[in-house]
Design brief:
The longest helix has 30 residues, at about 330-355. By secondary structure, the chain is an all-alpha fold. About 75% of the residues lie in helices and about 0% in strands. The protein has helices at about 5-25, 30-35, 40-70, 70-85, 95-120, 125-155, 160-175, 195-200, 210-235, 240-270, 270-290, 295-320, 330-355, 360-370. The radius of gyration is 20 Å and the shape is globular. It is built from 14 helices and no strands. Helix 3 (about 40-70) packs parallel to helix 5 (about 95-120), helix 5 crosses helix 12 (about 295-320) and helix 9 runs antiparallel to helix 12.
Length: about 400
């Protein structure tokens, strides 16, 4: 039977905790830097340490969740994130890096397991569930900058951590009614599936998963470029902060709103062709960004947002369908690590190339590089074996 999408909405709010918590702090770090007296390099470190914690911890917590219980692991992650947020109120502000790392560890657990639970709870309407999950999670990227600015205007930087803690408490409470998935039946696991380093790393060597992990990296590569360097291009064209803010909001809206729709399509058709189309649209749009302006720039940017949103939801749906029995958490955790990797590498690469050869070359080179990933999946399909058990 098709399960109500309420669980997906609850898990989407859990995912919202990390997107909101990461960005409400990141976009307001200049205020912190001015108050504490740190430079631009340290701001970069404070942003990166959160992502670094997630890259390392997501697959670990995913594997732990497969063995120790998914709901229990997710709740533990929410608790760690919440306590870490409150910790800032009681320590020397110069120790923010410790808080950010601990927040990242908690976020790794709640994020990796919440996305895995969507795959566990839903089979027939899994695409729609992932569309709702990702739209709600992604809303944090849009709401956080505005909310953070208002909080600092009315209070101070410390109050941001009260807000993130409050969001964590709400997520914890609404997650309590979620059912704990049934344990994997005895004898269903391979000999190397016990929680060991060999079993942990085995998911990274799955031939069926590797091309889609690569696509995940490329898509997040595009996301990092779109939201990190599109503002740079807008500034280079002479537009002001108001126009830049409006355009980025429109792009974010297209990226979020497309996900429930393409999730619905993923339930109806094979996800692989849709992912290829999304990659193609995003890659071509990234290439075109430095050559258009005005209305054409708006259209190209929206198409790029639609492309990355399409790939995001449908790769989640596809990868969860290919996960081995008893390894949903580890598989989605590994996918989460690849997402964070792409999110870090994209802005870094376009920044280096643009510094050396100019911004147009940076956009074109990164767009072409992303399009080359289509070669990895040109003959790959997404159809998993029928009646795959997922622990429900």
């Amino acid at each position: 039977m098709k399960r109500s999408l309420l669980y997906a909405a609850i898990l989407g709010f859990v995912g919202f905790v990390t997107s909101f918590g990461a960005h409400i702090v990141a976009v307001n770090l200049p205020t912190y830097a001015a108050a504490v007296g740190i430079g631009l390099a340290m701001i970069g470190v404070l942003i990166a340490v959160y992502d670094f914690a997630e890259i390392i911890a997501k697959p670990v917590f995913g594997a732990v969740a497969d063995r120790q219980g998914m709901k229990r692991t997710m709740l533990a992650g929410i608790a760690v994130f919440t306590v870490a947020s409150l910790l800032y109120l009681f320590i020397d502000p110069r120790l923010l890096i410790v808080v950010r790392f601990l927040q990242g560890v908690g976020a790794a657990a709640l994020s990796a397991v919440s996305v895995a639970l969507v795959g566990v709870y839903y089979i027939e309407n899994r695409g729609r569930a992932y569309g709702i999950y990702n739209a709600l999670k992604g809303a944090g990227y849009v709401i956080a900058p505005i909310t953070g600015g208002l909080i600092i205007a009315k209070a101070n930087f410390s109050a941001i951590f009260l807000a993130t803690a409050a969001i964590g408490v709400v997520a914890f409470l609404i997650s309590l009614p979620l059912p704990e998935p049934a344990a994997t039946p005895a004898g269903a696991l391979d000999d190397d599936d016990d929680f060991s380093w060999a079993g942990f790393f085995s998911v990274f060597r799955e031939p069926r998963l590797l091309p889609w992990f690569a696509v995940t990296v490329v898509n997040m590569f595009f996301v990092g470029i779109l939201f990190g360097f599109l503002p740079v291009q807008i500034h280079a064209l002479g537009y002001g902060p108001v126009q830049s803010g409006v355009l980025l909001t429109v792009v974010a809206a297209s990226y979020l709103l497309i996900q429930p729709l393409v999730g619905y399509l993923a339930d109806k058709v094979n996800a692989a062709p849709t992912i290829r189309l999304g990659l193609l649209a995003a890659g071509i749009s990234i290439i075109l960004v430095p050559f258009v302006n005005g209305a054409a720039l708006v259209i190209v940017s929206i198409i790029a947002g639609i492309g990355v949103g399409t790939v995001w939801t449908n790769t989640d749906t596809l990868v969860s369908g290919l996960a081995k029995e008893g390894k949903m958490g580890a598989t989605m955790g590994a996918a989460g690590s690849f997402k964070e990797l792409g999110d870090m590498v994209g802005p870094l690469l376009i920044g280096v190339v643009s510094q050396a050869f100019g911004l147009p070359v940076g956009f074109v080179a990164c767009g072409v590089l992303g399009l080359l990933s289509l070669l990895l999946i040109r003959r790959t399909t997404s159809t998993p074996p029928p009646n795959r058990a997922t622990g429900t």
